[in-house]
Write a structure and sequence with these properties.
The complex is a heterodimer of chains A (565) and B (114).
Chain A lengths: L14 E2 L6 H4 L4 E2 L3 E6 L5 H15 L4 E5 L4 H9 L5 H6 L3 E5 L7 E3 L6 H14 L3 E5 L3 H5 L3 H18 L2 E7 L17 E10 L2 E11 L8 E7 L2 E4 L15 E2 L4 H6 L5 E2 L3 E6 L5 H14 L4 E5 L4 H9 L6 H5 L3 E5 L7 H15 L3 E5 L10 H17 L3 E7 L18 E10 L2 E11 L9 E6 L2 E6 L1 E3 L2 E3 L1 H79 L3
Parallel strand pairs in A: 3-8, 3-9, 4-5, 4-7, 7-8, 15-19, 15-20, 16-17, 16-18, 18-19
Antiparallel strand pairs in A: 1-2, 9-10, 10-11, 11-12, 13-14, 20-21, 21-22, 22-23, 24-25
Chain B lengths: L24 E7 L4 H17 L4 E7 L6 H4 L7 E6 L4 E4 L5 H7 L8
Parallel strand pairs in B: 1-2
Antiparallel strand pairs in B: 1-3, 3-4
């Protein structure tokens, strides 16, 4: 019975790790072990370097000696050229870890007089392999043979035999080939090497060079089919397996301060989420870099590492400028927590930037990355490219739980910047906007969005002072939102009005008191009058009584005198 | 020519005529084992030399299977390769020497075709 439905464990081809950064990841382990691999590419695409790094890393890291057979460069030149990459070939040769063999073919010296084969080459290669017990072989660039020997039929047969021979010897071989016009290799060698074909490309896009690597074919294994950008720097090749990233990062609940206490308040009271991406947009001179510097400063003061990718200003310029708002970055630079990487975007292509940024992140291991400003990237790529590059960068940062802050310059009053459309990639979006009124320009800060937290919908006035960024409540009154001097004026007017009111009340109080006193005095007067009248009345009554008494007495006297009876 | 002994190709040196007024030829033939092609090349070469360079040539045969190191010195890739060490300039003639005309050109015994 055939067809057992159970999944059988897939046996992967044995692979030889190249040790080249990133390459082993995209190939799932390296080059096919014991088989030849063809590396195609134009001039200057990095073929020789690929081959050499494969050998050097093999010798250094995997204890696999290698033979480098050069058809183009003299061995002394190779030693010299690669020492600049920190590959000390003469040392490896001295320790029998590497054999360099320069094959020189001088067409004018050679005269063909009949049948021949390339047994001499086999003998040389075999001798070199045996002398150091090589496991790896690089032939760079074997197509040089075609210029040396006119008989192509013999040559092709011999090259085919050579590849088979390499396979029989069980060495993992890298054969470099010049890319032809419209064909993979100039002399069609790809038909002899069927296991693994890799294309290196060095192309110019808008005067900016970008290096890419593509695995055209890799028999018996799965591999990424995308073009992977790669970088050649002082450490050799670095391939970025970015396109393979997915949305699998874990969301962190930890919060970190933005460096501006009131901004933290606006962001649900605690600041940004760790591992989130933050976009700060604003027109020119609105304080984006200052916000970024606050964030960097607070991260470093917590003892975390911060990588500052500056695309507009130099390190010393930023340090100087931030000192004017009371942030001293110099000590942080000195103790190594803060690292600046200042480059012009036009230095290299977008992909290159991406690769180098990823490499920096990997080497420096920051917990906070600042990119200032990301909008400059548009000068080296189209909006879609920038967006895709940023997306991959953000993804790779999120995978590591790194918090990233991007500043972005917006032009004009388009609040949605976004000639790049990057805002949708961001978790938190803060915009700093000019508010112009009363003949002056002030800054208003808004939190446009902040995923996963209750954030303030308030506009805050953003004030840059010598003690750093301050957020001030804007004046919201009947006259609308006021900021700056207008706010101050309004506030002072308010104060003035209040004062006047108080005085009025005071005055009213005093008036009342006076009136009260007056009324009281009046009442007292009236009472006095009343009592005076009373006294008058009493006096009159008394006088009347006296008069009556007197009249009585008079009458009695009269009667007595008349002797009335 | 009889091929007997351990390695008839090795150590074969023809002595040259000291009095010859013409230039001496110092030739070195690289082979890899006693393949028919190598033997053929040696036979062809010997014949040409006997005919055109009688008594003023020497042929040193080097078997790379025995001395693989030597391949590097004279930059040998093709087998068989005849290296004309003298007269200068150094010239390499590859193949089994079946094309006598081209061998003669290589040895400067015939003017090169323009």
């Amino acid at each position: 019975m055939s067809g057992s439905k159970e999944p059988t464990s897939v046996k992967q081809l044995p692979k030889t790790a190249t040790g080249i950064d990133g390459f082993d990841e995209i190939t799932g382990g390296g080059l096919p072990q014991g088989r030849p691999t063809l590396i195609c590419g134009g001039p200057g695409s990095g073929k020789t370097l690929f081959g050499m790094e494969f050998l050097v890393r093999g010798a250094r890291d995997f204890d696999e000696p290698g033979v480098f057979m050069s058809f183009e460069e003299k061995d002394t030149d190779l030693v010299e050229n690669f020492s600049s990459l920190g590959f000390y070939l003469d040392d490896l040769v001295a320790r029998n870890k590497m054999a360099l063999d320069y094959v020189h073919i001088e067409r004018s010296e050679i005269l063909e007089t009949g049948e021949f084969d390339l047994e001499g080459l086999f003998v040389r290669l075999g001798f070199a392999i045996d002398s150091i017990g090589a496991k790896r072989v690089v032939l760079d660039t074997i197509e040089a043979l075609f210029s040396g020997f006119p008989n192509e039929a013999i040559l092709r047969a011999e090259i085919r035999r050579l590849f088979r021979w390499l396979k029989d010897r069980g060495v993992t071989a890298v054969i470099t080939c010049e890319q032809g016009k419209g064909t993979l290799t100039r002399h069609g060698l790809e038909e002899y090497v069927s296991d693994c074909v890799i294309i290196l490309d060095h192309r110019m896009i808008e005067q900016v060079a970008t290096r890419r690597l593509r695995i055209l074919k890799y028999r018996g294994t799965t591999h990424g089919t995308n073009e992977y950008p790669f970088l050649i720097d002082e450490g050799g090749l670095y391939v970025l397996p970015i396109t393979s990233l997915g949305l699998t990062h874990k969301a962190l609940n930890e919060r970190i301060s933005s460096g501006v206490p009131r901004l933290d308040n606006m962001l649900g009271g605690e600041g940004y989420f760790r591992g989130s991406s933050i976009l700060v947009t604003g027109t020119a001179g609105t304080g984006k870099t200052s916000l970024a510097a606050h964030f960097a400063n607070s991260a470093c003061l917590r003892g975390e590492r911060c990588l500052y990718l500056a695309f507009e200003e130099s390190e010393s310029q930023i340090v100087r400028n931030m000192r004017s708002i009371g942030i001293d970055l110099q000590p942080l630079l000195d103790n190594g927590l803060l690292h600046f990487h200042a480059t012009r975007p036009s230095l290299c292509g977008l992909e290159m930037h991406l690769v180098s940024m990823n490499k920096l992140v990997r080497d420096f291991k920051p917990s906070v990355v600042i990119m200032d400003p990301v909008s400059n990237m548009i000068s080296v790529g189209s909006a879609a490219e920038v967006k895709s590059a940023l997306m991959r960068f953000i993804d790779s940062l999120k995978m590591e739980g790194i918090t990233a802050l991007f500043t972005c310059l917006i032009v004009g009053q388009h609040q949605d910047l976004t000639d790049m459309g990057v805002s949708s990639l961001m978790d938190t979006w803060i915009t700093v906007r000019d508010i112009e009124s009363g003949g002056e320009r002030n800054r208003g800060l808004y939190v446009i969005k902040s995923r996963g937290m209750a954030h303030s919908n308030q506009v805050r006035e953003f004030v840059l002072s010598s003690d750093g960024v301050r957020l001030v409540d804007v004046y919201v009154g009947p006259g609308g939102v006021l900021t700056g001097a207008a706010r101050l004026a309004q506030e002072s007017k308010d104060r003035q009005e209040g004062k006047e009111l108080e005085e009025e009340i005071e005055r009213k109080k005093r008036e009342f008191e006076t009136r009260k006193l007056a009324v009281e005095a009046q009442v007292a007067g009236m009472l006095a009058e009343l009592s005076a009248q009373e006294k008058e009345l009493e006096k009159i009554a008394r006088e009347e009584a006296e008069r009556k008494a007197w009249a009585e007495r008079e009458r009695a006297e009269l009667a007595r005198q008349r002797h009335a009876d | 020519m009889a091929l007997s002994g351990d390695n008839p190709l090795m150590g074969e040196k023809e002595s040259a005529n000291e009095t010859a007024p013409e230039r001496r030829y110092e030739l070195r033939l690289y082979v890899a084992g006693q393949t028919p092609r190598s033997l053929e090349a040696f036979a062809n070469l010997k014949k040409i030399c006997e005919e055109h360079l009688k008594d003023r040539y020497s042929i040193e045969v080097i078997d790379l299977l025995e001395n693989p190191k030597l391949a590097r010195g004279d930059q040998i890739l093709a087998i068989p390769t005849l290296v004309r060490k003298l007269p200068e300039p150094i010239r390499k003639i590859i193949g089994n020497m079946a094309d006598t005309e081209r061998v003669l050109i290589g040895l400067d015994l015939r003017p090169r075709k323009s």
